[in-house]
Amino acid sequence: MRLGTRKTCLVTGGAGFLGSHLCERLLDAGHEVICLDNFFTGTRRNVEHLVNNPRFELKRHDVTFPLYVEVDEIYNFACPASPIHYQHDPVQTTKTSVHGAINMLGLAKRVHAKILQASTSEVYGDPKVHPQKEDYWGHVNPNGFRSCYDEGKRCAETLFFDYYRQHKLRIKVMRIFNTYGPRMHPNDGRVVSNFIVQALTGQPITLYGDGMQTRSFCYVDDLIEGALRLMNAPDEVTGPMNIGNPVESTIRELAERIVQMTGSKSRIEYRPLPQDDPMQRCPDISLAAKTLDWGPKVKLEEGLGKTIAYFDRLLAEDPSIVA
Ligand code: NAD
Ligand code: UDP
Known about the structure:
Helix content is about 35%, strand content about 15%. By secondary structure, the chain is an alpha/beta fold. The protein has a domain at about 10-180 and about 220-245 and about 280-300: 3-Layer(aba) Sandwich (Rossmann fold).
């Protein structure tokens, strides 16, 4: 630990959607931030407003290789998160989750840092229990198109808990449910960014399946608040802990809402449902509410409004961004 309460925090995947918001919040709290990224899905643009801050350092590095830095806390967010990105090079996705976890846990052990893992609701697969509670073991296909991500993240959780039991490491495992907001990648195929960009550019809204599958959408600021509270909770609070918004909506409702909010003329176009697409997903967040006194504050309408404004600006600056 450095002098006073200022900490040095490593954020892997720091130039990505969630990582960039996290870097911002850590800097606002007065900490030093090392933002590490291989720029697979993240961009410098996401952190360019931070690079002149003397407490911020941007480092190109791939977490599948060892790293030697002195830090107090590690937020391990490096991993492509959208289905089209993590399926682009599935072997690399598993390596990022598994080798990345091994390297970051090894670093945490060597420098006695506390470490938080960005795990995912995907560890529950296509769940048979609803809403999902942390003690549910999930229903996951081990060899399908989503497995590189789902099983990679499950193995990372295993490693975290083995380092906790075997090496007494201070760990935090956060299971993130669908999160959206400014700085999502405009071409990552995730539903919120896809629908907003399609609505703003007058393209058809691509609804997969009958649109009756559900997700629960958490605004990025709420998610980051949950991550910070979990990291700062007492050592015995290891998780796994669900962080997400329990307000569930069908994908069709989401499409209709975005069309209405953007005033778009786009029509809805039905496409086949991708393999292993979970039918229902909704977090039980009672553990986070009780332990961290945390709950989402931003309503879907408000969060979508901010996200639409972000993509509107982005498209005005550079329409080729979605080419
Ligand atoms: P993102 O793609 O915007 O960010 C991931 C970042 O990791 C990118 O900047 C990317 O370049 C970087 N990265 C990928 N592989 C790397 C590697 N090998 N070495 C170094 N950097 C690498 O996605 P996001 O939505 O910000 O997700 C961040 C984390 O949160 C991921 O671990 C993801 O699995 C998890 N998560 C996100 C959500 C969500 O809804 N956004 C849901 C569940 C879990
Ligand atoms: N989806 C859709 N149209 C799109 C993109 C996604 O209907 O253009 C659906 C997708 O099939 C899934 C849901 O929206 O049921 C959420 O997809 P996303 O890729 O955002 O996240 P995940 O499936 O990982 O929760």
